[in-house]
Design brief:
Layout lengths: L13 H7 L8 H12 L2 E7 L15 E2 L2 E2 H11 L5 E5 L3 H7 L6 E4 L7 H12 L6 E6 L7 H8 L8 E6 L2 E9 L3 H7 L7 H6 L5 E4 L20
Parallel strand pairs: 1-4, 1-6, 4-5, 7-9
Antiparallel strand pairs: 2-3, 6-8, 7-8
Helix pairs in contact: 3-6, 5-7
């Protein structure tokens, strides 16, 4: 039988209305506390500054002049201004000279006697130095990238969610530095970091978990590798 248009629509039973309006369940107190604790964990800055500058005639990159001071000081400042702490600095080539000439006060300085083996040895030494510090993650940067400033560091740092976080700056969609490694990943990274591959093996294996943070609008990811690159430090 056709409905009578003059009759008002039937009221929705209270119980059905309540079902439709049911709010989403609130997070449990335990999960809220865990999230807060993870977010509060410090993100350490890990600066790899051990390179000997082979293509620069054997001039250690940490001591290249930049704005009147050694380049390593700029890299430390960028990490601090980007919100990282503590800051650990891995030295290798001419480590004694770097300690003497650069102001690394407030940093934990780590000597890597195996620096000539490549970046992997410095990464292993740096991660080992962070064990027991309570850091939830290490944000890794390279001393020879002065085009990457504090804003890029801060963006990647803000990607931290838990000790399992894996994040990196990207430039036009291409992965670059800095890279953030949650503490739960350090053991596997150290086990696979060989030669100049650094953490590449881990990053490839866990590509689906990697969060890319676009930084191409605030930074330039060039390296200081050759004499021609020194013009960028002027």
């Amino acid at each position: 039988m056709p409905a009578d248009p003059s009759r008002p629509p039937a009221a929705v039973p209270p119980e059905r209305s309540a079902l439709r309006a049911a709010p989403a369940p609130a997070p449990s107190p335990a999960s809220a506390v865990a999230s807060a604790v993870a977010s509060a964990a410090p993100v350490a800055g890990l600066l790899l500054a051990a390179g000997g500058g082979r293509r620069l005639g054997g001039r250690p990159k940490a001591l290249l002049p930049y704005r009147g001071r050694p380049l390593v000081e700029n890299a430390v400042r960028v990490l601090r201004e980007g919100g990282c702490g503590p800051v650990h600095v891995v030295l290798g080539a001419s480590a004694a000279d770097v300690r003497e000439r650069a102001d690394l006060s407030g940093c934990v300085v780590v000597d890597n006697p195996d620096w000539a083996e490549g970046m992997g040895s410095s990464l292993r030494a740096g991660l080992a130095s962070l064990a027991g510090t309570g850091a939830g993650a290490a944000l890794v940067s390279l001393v020879d990238q002065p085009g990457i400033g504090a804003e890029a560091v801060a963006r990647v740092r803000r990607a931290y969610r838990s000790p399992a976080t894996l994040a990196a700056a990207s430039y036009g969609g291409e992965r670059g530095h800095p890279v953030l490694f949650g503490a739960d990943r350090w053991a596997d990274i150290a086990a696979t970091a060989e030669g100049d591959r650094g953490a590449r093996v881990h990053l490839v294996r866990h590509a689906a978990e990697l969060v890319l943070v676009e930084c191409g609008d605030v930074a330039e990811a060039y390296d200081i590798d050759t004499p021609a690159d020194l013009a960028r430090l002027a």
